[in-house]
Each structure stands twice: as structure tokens, then as C-alpha cells.
Amino acid sequence: MRCYRVPLDGDGLENLAVMVAPAVNGSGREPLYLLAGGPGQAASDLAPLLNAFRRINRERAIVMADRRGAGRSGAFRCGFGSDMPADLETFSRQLAQCYLQKADFAETLSSRQTVADLERVRRFLGHGRIALWGGSWGTRTALLYQQWQPESLSALVLDAVAPIDTKVFLTAGAAENALQQLERDCVEDVVCARFGDWRRQLDRLLSQWDDGRAANFPDPLTGAPSEQPLARWALANAIRTALYDPKAAAQLPYAIDQTRLGNYRPLSGIAGLFANRTDSMAMGLTFSVACAEELNRISGEEVAADSANTFLGTAFFDLFKSGCEVWPVQPKPYGAPEPRDQPVLLISGDADPITPPVYAERQLDYLSRKQHLVVAGGGHINSPRGCIPELIARFLDSPGKPLDDSCVAEIRRPPFMADAFGPALDMGGAEQ
Amino acid sequence: MEKRRFSPQMAPLLLKEFLETWRDRRALWMAICFSLMFPVLLAGVTIFVVKKNTEETTRLALLGAENAPLLERQLRGPNLEVEAVAEGSPRQLLNDGYDLVLQLPDNFARDYRDFRAPPLYLYMDSSATGAGRAEHHLQERLNSLQQLVVSQRLTARGVAPQLLAPWQLQVRDVSTPSSRGALILAMVPGLLILTLFVASLATSVDTSAGERERLSLETLLLQPLPAWQVIAAKTLAVASLGWLGSLLAIAALVALMPVMPLAELGIQQATTTGGVLAMGLLLLPLALLVAVVQILLALRSSSFKDAQTQLSILQIAPVTLLMVLDAARIDLTDNYWQLVPLVAQQQWLKALLVGESVSVGWVLAGSLTCLLLVAAAIAFGARALRRESLLGAV
């Protein structure tokens, strides 16, 4: 692993932090750049992926460049550490203060700047053409790089695809579909099917949620009753977040069924899965990019249409809407995508609550050479699972060739939680 | 006997020594064979080990699988083949070609549900090759299942699973692929030096103790030649063979590197052409030193056989020392170590093998030290030759 500081000219920040895992065999294959999600996540946070990408790393250097305002390139955190305030008002107030302090910096942050910076890094490292791996919002950055710097690019690997024209912050419909996919998979499973109509219980729980119930919701980290009662929107978001990860999703039916009996602990445990993560987003960067490039192009009607008849409603969108109200950066539209012919490998999980496979299928017609891997029951980001790292390596070695993707079908959902003892090792057989 | 500082007879003397050295087919073949042997062995072992580790799958017989079909399903993985076996004794199954036998007791699932931590019996034959690897394959799958169960059990009680991991240790390996190679290729310099010793062994015994027993040494000493020239000529002839041996070994090693699956081991092949040439050159002073020390030792031995025994010990001692120094991780980064013959050459070879550079100044200084020692040994040998007792020893 090597670290570099790539100098920038002006604009406050002096340099970009770049981490490179050199290729084991310097055979001259083009390097793979990893682009992180968010917007607001740092590429250096993707270092754990290196383990899954070991085979790729044998022939290619893997480059992780923290974009401006993320990670070690001057993380723009606005004082939000790992914990988010529990109510929207406090959140907006803190955000507004942060904006006023660094309004100029906030205005400069954009995808266009990130693409230009990536070019700078590429030239600094002396790389010719490069391949890109993008995850989640990183796929958007990668697709924009392909639009604006096509001559620098050899191939694209996009996991959890956010096409240029897709309004990814309209996530209620996608989350609802992911939950329904979970319901269908649950019915198919002998153990999970016993929970019956847990979905109706979830709807009931969300519609009847009040401070009294919230007070019963224990803190998953301390075990003590929560100091601040959990808001309804936060609960809905916790469910949505659990759907990102199939392991967490596999615990939802049991946890929701338990609330029927007044036991909120399993659900609190699931919420705790994602609490206090220190690799969280740099919120200043998140809002600078999201408000300028996404929120401003979403209309009220679209929000209403997306959130109708969903468990999430506007719980996720409201957070960004209220944030962008105090974060008045200029809109930075992209322009319509032009045809491109670099080979592209698309990866989706069919139970992804934010970037479902349909995005990759319907909104990338301008790409002439693309292949799509869809992981059954897969959540958000599937690159490290099963044979996918191997397929990515093969794709990068001969991007034009169609992949034999039959092994993707072997990737299964993790076993559902059956009871307090965990998964049913006897698959619900003998005993009951 | 007329004493002269330098005799013009040196050229014919050298010719004679070289002819005798190179004419000895047996010694020549031995040198060549040994030089080629270790690179070929090294390549073979690397290829074999990597193949074993990456391609072999473990066969696991699962007794009582009907008690926990989910366990059976979750254990299956790319390098673990799980077969549910209805009955059989573990010993018999291991004999039948299974690497491991895992037995679930009858009430396994019930005890598991009741949190009674039921036992799982793993039968293995630790004397079988690959037993360790097989167990590792199973542990890997079992651990991930165990993690899943623990995580679900904690969630069920409202406990965030990260409470089990009070911190996240993130490892950043700052080694470059070539410096990773230093660890695995660390034995190569020692083996190259050993090649030097082995390749010149037979000749050095023959040219000293051998000539003495054939009584031709006496004739040689009657010639009007300074004794140091005799020793020097013999040293040069013997060193030429030792050096050739080590050059051959280097060439073979570099030629075989592309077929070795070094990338799979995370090693970069970084040896450059310049590096290979440098390796050859810096072994030359050492070849001379080894040759002269071998000749002197053989001369002071009591017989041809005695000389062979002494030199066999001599060839093992320094190489063992180098390996011990390496294994004990004694810090040799101090530049003054580069003035110590053997240690110096080992450090330089190690650096050059992984494509790192060595300081020319220190290499010259170290080589010069080595050559001074050669000169001193020749002078010492010349004085010893003048003692008649040396010739009498049979």
C-alpha cells in the first residue's frame, strides 16, 4: 500500500489523499480506481474491498482517491460524527450553521470537480487509460467520468447503479419493492413462513407509532431505555437501512413479529446494526452534491407518486428536503448522456432498497456494450459476494467477452432468524 | 632455491591449474548439477505448494446431517465439499478418502435451540498431508456460520452486535509486492552462497591434498616460483569453478522465475538484468575467498579424506550461520555489516533479488575487504607452504 498527496491549485484544499495498492505483477494492465458512494463516503473507506479484489490486484494497481471534502481530503463533516440528531429540527439547525461557515467551499463541491480531480490523480500517477469500479453513488461519478473523460477510460464496473437520469433520492418505491421481495422470499422459506403476515404488523406498528411505544424502544448500545424517543421517520429509516444488507434483512420478519408481542428488543438490535458507524458520510459533502445535483430536479408530484403506498413514505426524502432548505447551493445539472461504447459490467441486487436492478436495465440505453449481473435476494453492493469478485476480474481481463454468470445463482440469502436462538439449523424440521 | 618476487612462469602455471580444474569431468558435473538442483527444487516446491493451496478442495463427511440440514448447506463452499453420510465409523471414513469427519449428535438441533451449546465432533488424521489445510477450510466456514448465529442471538436480545467488537482494527499493509518477496526469497542468497562452497569443494581438495598425495605438489614447489603464486594460481582456478556454479544457479533461478506462481504468493518478480549482472559480479570476491580458505584448510589436513571431511563441515557452517542470522531476525541494517564477507553478500543478493538497489560505495568497500582477506590468506598460505612438514603429512 502506498499513499500519495496529489497537489491541487487554490480553492482552499491543498491536496488530495490517494491510497494505492500496487499490482503484484506490474504487467502494464490498466489500474482500477474505486469510487465511493454517498455522496460523502471516502474511497479510502473501501479498503476492506481489497481482500475480495485480491485477484484483480495481482495484475492491476487499485487506486482509492478521497474526493474533496471526504476522508483524508479535508472531510466536510459539519460536526456530525457518528450520531445523527434524533429530530429533524436540531439536524437542520446544525446543518445551517455549518453551511454559513463554509458556504464557498460547499458551492465548489460537485461531481464535475470530482471528475476533474480524478483526471488530475490519473496524470499524477502516470496512468494511461484506467478502469473504474463505482459503488452506489460512485456509479454516478463513474458514469459522469465516462461522459466527460471518455478517452481516459477503458472499462466500467458499476455495483448498485445510479444512472445519470435516475432520481435516486426517490427511494420509497424501491424500498417498498425490496421489502416485498423479502416477503416473497420469506413465504418460500419454511422457517420464515411461520411468521405469517409480519408485513401487516409492520404497517400497524408504523401507523400507530407514538411516544409511548417509542419510550419502550431500548437503546441497542447501552441497553438502557432511550433518552430520546425514536421518531416514526427514524424507525422507518432503520427498516429501510436493514434492507441494504441481506443479513440484517433476514432478521426483520422475526423482529417485526416480536413487536406484536410487545417485544421491541430485536427491532432495536437491528437498528443498532447501523448505529455509531465511524465510517459515516461527510455530511457537508453529502448535502453539497445531493442538493445541487439531485434534490433540485425532483418535483413535489414525483415525491408524492414515489411515496404513495409505501412503508417508508417521505421519511427518507424529508431528511434531505429539510437539509437542502438550509443548504442553498446552485443547481448543477449534467446534460443528457451521450452514447458511449466502453464495456460496462453492471451489478444489482434484486432486493436493493435504493438502486434496484430496473435502474440499470432501463436507463442506460446509451451504453452499447453492457452486461448485467443480478443477485437474487441481494441488497445494496454485491461485489464482495460469492463469485462476483472472480467475474469482475474476468470482465476486466477481457471486457468484450460475455461472462458465464451461472455462478451468480449460487449466491443465496443468509438464513432467516427463526427465534431467539438464531437460525433454525434443522430448518424447522423435526421438533415442531 | 632462488627467491624472486614475481616469476614470469605465472602464465604457464595458471594454464596448468585451470586445465587440471576444468578437465576434471566429475568435479565439473557435480558443480553443474548442484547449481541447477536448488533453483529447480525451489521452483517445483513453489508450484506444488500454490497448486495444493488454491486448487485442492476438502472432502468432509457429515455424520448426522439430518439433524441440521442448514448446517450442511451453510458449510458448503468453494473449497469444502460436504457429503452427508448416513452411517460409518469416523476412522473408516477417513480411510475411505475423506479429509475430515464431522459428527452431529442426535439431539444436536434441540440442544442448540435450548442454548445448551451441543458438542460437534471433528475427526481428523493429523498425520495425513493436508490435514491442517482441511481443518482450516472447515473452520473458515464454521466461523462464518457461528458469527451469523451469534449476531442473530444478540439482535434478538436488542444488543447491537458491534458491542462484541469494541474496536475495528483496520490493517494497511505498507509492503510493496517486491518487499513481500524478500521474506520468501530470503533463503535464496544463502543457497547461492552454498552453491559456491559445494561447486569448488572437489577441486580445492584435489588441487591441494590430492596433489600432495600424488606427490606432484612437491615437484611444483621445486620450480623457481614464489609460493604465493602457487597458491594464487590454485585459488583462481578453484574459484573459477565455484563462481561458474553460482552464476549457473542465478541464471537458472532467473529463468525459472516466470514459471513460478509468485503472483499467487503476492510476490512481484522484480529482478532486473542489471541486478542479475551485479549479483554475478559481487559473488566473485567471495568465490575467491571461499577457494583460498578451502585450499588452506585442505593443505593443513592430514590426508585427502581428512580434507574432504573438514571442507564438508566448512561448507555447512557459514551457510547455517547465515540462515540462523536470518531466522533470528538479527538486525543487519547497520552499514558496517556490509564489510563482513558472507553477511555482506547475503544482504546484497537479498536486495537485488527483489529489485531494490544496493549502495555501490558499500559494495565496493565490502568487496575490497573480501579481496584483502584473500590476499592475506594467500600470504599466509605461502608461508605455510615453505614449511616442509606440510608436505610430509600423509
Automatic annotation (TrEMBL), chain B:
UniProt keyword annotations, A-Z: Membrane, Transmembrane, Transmembrane helix
The organism's place on the tree of life at top rank: Bacteria
Topological category with respect to the lipid bilayer: Multi-pass membrane protein
Keyword Transmembrane applies: yes
A molecular function GO annotation: ABC-type transporter activity
Main location: membrane
Domain ABC-2 type transporter transmembrane span(s) in chain numbering: 32-377
Pfam families, A to Z: ABC2_membrane_3
Residue ranges crossing the lipid bilayer per the database entry: 27-50, 182-205, 236-256, 276-299, 311-330, 360-382
Keyword Hydrolase applies: no
Subcellular location: Membrane
UniProt protein name: Sodium transport system permease protein
